[in-house]
Specification:
By secondary structure, this protein is of the alpha+beta class.
Length: about 90
């Protein structure tokens, strides 16, 4: 898998904003990606040093649309901890 296919998009929520104050950033990643691939992709894309990566599988939800139940696909997110002093400018609004 190409390193630029690993990261899908950054997740900007209230919880992820609070985590960014502790040098942790949250990304939606490809379902097939592992921790090493996420580490390399973040280091190469943002030119920072990654200390650790935590992966979470988010199950798909079932929603009702009228009488029909529709299931949304499962996805995976990664919480990336950076070395002290490093920041990702994308989340800072620059």
């Amino acid at each position: 898998m190409n390193l630029f296919e690993v990261l899908r998009r950054p997740l900007v929520t209230e919880k992820s904003t609070r985590l960014s104050e502790r040098n942790k950033y949250v990304f939606e990643v490809d379902k097939r990606a592992n921790k090493d691939q996420v580490r390399l992709a973040v280091e190469k894309a943002f030119k920072v040093d990654v200390v650790s990566v935590n992966m979470i599988k988010v199950p798909g939800e079932t929603k009702k649309m009228g009488r029909r139940a529709v299931s949304r696909p499962a996805w995976k997110k990664a919480i990336v901890t950076l070395k002290e002093g490093d920041k990702i400018q994308y989340f800072e609004g620059v």
